Every structure is written in C-alpha cells, then in structure tokens.
Amino acid sequence: MTREELERRVAEVPIWYHVMELAPGVVTPGEFDLRPFVSEFGFPESLAGLAVLDVGASNGFFSFHFERLGADRVVALDLRTVKDHDVPRWYLEERAAGMSADDLGRLDHDQLEAGFQLAHEVYGSKVEKRRHTVYELADAMPGEFDLAFCNGLLHHLRDPVGALENIRSTLKPGGRMILGCACDLSNDASYAVFWGQLEPHVMWWIMSREAILRMCRMAGFREVEWTGSFDHGPTTNPEHGGPIGVIHAVAP
C-alpha cells in the first residue's frame, strides 16, 4: 500500500496502545513508546528455533519484535473481549450499562483487534493471535513455549501469583520467563500495597522489588533474577509513570 494509504489507515484505528513504526516515518500514536527500552529486557540476540508467548500483547509491539529476532513461532495473547479485563464486576456492569451488542463489538474491535490487524498486515507477519485471560493459560497452552514474555500486566491483576503460575505452565521444562513489572523501589522490604485505582487504568497493586521476586518463586519459578529497572510512563502523561523492573526466571 502507498504511504498515504497507510497513514490514513493508521489514523482510522481509534485506539493505539503501542507506538510502532509500521514503515519508515509512519509511526502509530500509541499511549506507550517502548522502542527506546527494548534492550532493557535482555532478550537473546536470536530466538531461532524457539516458540515464544507474548502475554498481554495488545497491538503486538513485542510479538513482532520476537518474530524479527527469528522465533519459529510467536503467539500474541490478548483478551476475547474488553469484558474479560480483571476489574470489579460492578465496574464492568456500570461501564456496559446502555451499551448494545453492536457497541460492545465495536469497542472490542477498536481496542483488541484493529491495531494488531493493521500491523500484522503491514509487516506480512505470521504471528498467531490467541484469546484467553492469563488465568486460563494452564489449560489452554500447557508446555508449548520456550520463552514467555509479560510486561506491564501484573499490577492490573487481582491475583498476580495465580497469573505467574499460569504463565509458568505454558513453558517447557527449562523454559524462560522475562517479566516487566511496575514496582516500588523505595526500600528493600517485601510488600504489595493494595492500590485500588480504577481510572485512568485499573491498578490493583503497588509491589516492591522483593515482593515481585518472591511472587515468582511462589509461582514455581527457579533462578529468579532481577536484571535491572528503567523509568517509563504514558506518552500523554509521563508524570504518571515510574520504574519498571525486569525479572528473568526459569521453569523447572
């Protein structure tokens, strides 16, 4: 497609989560720009021969990166519907009040499909899209992957340890997880503070570095290692950002 057509189609996507360069000079207006921080996660230089799971893939920024690193198979995991977000039931009911099935379908498409589909088409990608909550992974995709990646999800979940257990269940023996997680680095104690924030994004927890490491161990991971952190926030409100910790771990 021509540059003009691509720019038009990018503008037609109502919700972009990731800033992505779809073609030279054609950049999506995403809420989060992780391009400068890819090296912070410590990905292998090559993923040749590996099957990779991107948990909470959204527009697929990392999924397509794994494909470019040579992974044999990449699965981008996202929700079936916005109603699957891990939020209080009353909050879902309140937000859905007055919405028709068509309204919900459009919202699902705009938030969960449109950006990924356009990027997938433009890149000529073979990334697979699978639709499950993180809590369903143990039953949906047990033992299929060599590497599981999850960034920016745990603090949005009411049961982060249960989520980590399910991620571990997707890994082959000796498979690795790379986790990016919002964290509090103010002291060395282990704590998870109930935050209880609904807007602009649902935040269940603020977790310390030590708490995240212990959660990974409680979920059954071995060789749990904190590899560093970086500061990151929304493109529209960078003051709402904070440190993102990076953890590498191994499935037994």
At CATH level 3, the topology is Rossmann fold
Highest-level CATH class: Alpha Beta
Name the poorly predicted regions.
Answer: none
The geometry reads as globular
The number of E-state strands comes to 11
Widest sheet: strand ordering: 5-4-3-6-7-11-10
N-end to C-end Cα span: 46 Å
- Judged by helices, strands and strand pairing, the structural class is alpha/beta
Overall tally of structural domains? 1
Main pleated sheet: 7 strands, mixed
Radius of gyration: 18 Å
Kindly report the average pLDDT value: 96
Would you kindly provide a written description of the structure presented here, covering whatever features stand out?
Strand 8 (192-197) and strand 9 form a beta hairpin. This protein has a single domain (48-112, 124-250), classed as Vaccinia Virus protein VP39 (Rossmann fold), CATH 3.40.50. It is an alpha/beta fold and 252 residues long. The longest helix is centred in the middle third of the chain and has 23 residues, at 101-123. The protein has helices at residues 3-12, 61-68, 89-96, 101-123, 137-140, 160-169, 209-218; strands at residues 21-23, 26-27, 51-55, 73-78, 128-131, 145-151, 171-182, 192-197, 203-207, 222-232, 242-250. It is 29% helix and 28% strand. The protein contains 7 helices and 11 strands. The protein is globular, with a radius of gyration of 18 Å. The strands form 3 sheets. A 7-stranded mixed sheet has the order 5-4-3-6-7-11-10, with helices on both faces. It has a two-stranded antiparallel sheet with strand order 1-2.
